Amino acid sequence: MTYRAGIIGTGGIAGMGILGMHDEEAIGKEKIRASHAGGYDEAAGVELVAVADVDEEKLDTFGEAWEISPERRYVGHEAMLEAEDLDVVSVCTPSFLHRDHVVDAAQSAADPDVVWCEKPIASSVTDAEEMIDVCDDADVELLVNHSFRFTDKLRRLHDLMQEEDLLGEVHSVSSQFRMELLRNSTHLLDTLVYLLDARAERVSGYISGENEAVDSLDADQDVDDAAGGGYALMDDGTFATIDCTIPRDDSSMTLLFVGSEGKLYMNNDDGEWRYWTLDDGEHVEEPLPGIEGAWTWEDDYESAFGNAADHVVELLDGEARNRSPGREAARSLEIIVGLYVSHYTGGDVSVPLDRPLRDVTITSW
């Protein structure tokens, strides 16, 4: 059988293309591989059959590019969820709308078994928790598109660290990436919590207020998303420093892990991963077992969407465990919220966040 997919939101990550990542001539005119629609197009066993947006012009542009019949282009997500019988719904709207669209999809007549939601999971921890609970109650898998998790290299590295004790006890991680925290650096923080399989326990932060996307996307200047950083003490004892204040043109996503049995350097933008084992007090560089080369945007990011759509099919078939569940996606969000709360209160923040702090909303796109 072929599963049926629908998409809410016809923005760049849905399949239109993103300015700065794709040629301007391609946006809205070509099938962009690194997208939800691109993932469905590559995966066997699932077909994109419907799409919804409140902007009719964007809806028709997307529909033409991805060959969605006019009668299945819906103005507003409610119309699609009422009319269609769907196995999976992608939520590709701005993060402040994720709560409404995920909850509506999970409780809708469309009756999906999987909701594939863009990152970050939500704009507040309260919204994220409600999304998780509603999907649990409806027996819907909430799959969050932290796309690094859908690449073979990062999954192998996770197994090396968690199952084969590659670094031993991790003591410290220093990390950096570009501004803004929600729109971009959720990737960095999810990689951190994924590889450590840990949750923040205490957070201290700084928010610069700088935001490049206001100009590059011609976006609403009132959004809260901005550059920032700080530290997070993880519940496994790891001390992690976070610097997400760097302009896009200057940045590289880098993480340096130091553990009792070795150290690991990851530079994803420049395609360089290096590993040293600790041998009698000396670090000796060795290849990463079972990993050839390093993660790159050109190769691994491009393939992540097809891999994620394949994983959607595995979940629908009942043959896999969710690789990027909502509960784990909330771990990166609570660090970001903690950085903001710490900056504006002048103190450290404990995680799990106290109830009023879980309501703090950080707006982005």
Number of helices: 11
Tell me the major beta sheet.
9 strands, mixed
Query: How helical, in percent, are the residues?
Result: 25-40%
Shape, principal axes of CA atoms: globular
% residues in beta strands: 15-25%
Oligomer: single chain
On the 0-100 scale, what is the average pLDDT? Answer: 94
Cα distance spanning the termini? 36 Å
Tell me the Rg in angstroms: 20 Å
* Order of strands in the sheet with most strands: 14-13-12-11-7-10-9-8-15
| Overall number of strands | 15
Structural class: alpha/beta
Could you provide a short overview of the structure?
By secondary structure, the chain is α/β, with parallel strands linked by helices.
Descriptive keywords:
365 residues; 25% strand; 32% helix; six-stranded parallel beta sheet; nine-stranded mixed beta sheet
Topology (elements, then pairings):
Elements: E1 3-8, H1 36-42, E2 46-53, H2 56-65, E3 73-75, H3 77-83, E4 88-91, H4 98-106, E5 114-118, H5 125-137, E6 141-145, H6 152-162, E7 170-178, H7 186-196, E8 200-207, H8 213-216, E9 228-234, E10 239-246, E11 254-259, E12 262-267, E13 272-279, E14 282-286, H9 297-317, H10 326-345, E15 349-350, H11 355-358
What features would you describe in this structure?
This protein has 365 residues and is an alpha/beta fold. It is 32% helix and 25% strand. It has helices spanning 36-42, 56-65, 77-83, 98-106, 125-137, 152-162, 186-196, 213-216, 297-317, 326-345, 355-358; strands spanning 3-8, 46-53, 73-75, 88-91, 114-118, 141-145, 170-178, 200-207, 228-234, 239-246, 254-259, 262-267, 272-279, 282-286, 349-350. Helix 5 (125-137) links the parallel strand 5 and strand 6 (141-145).
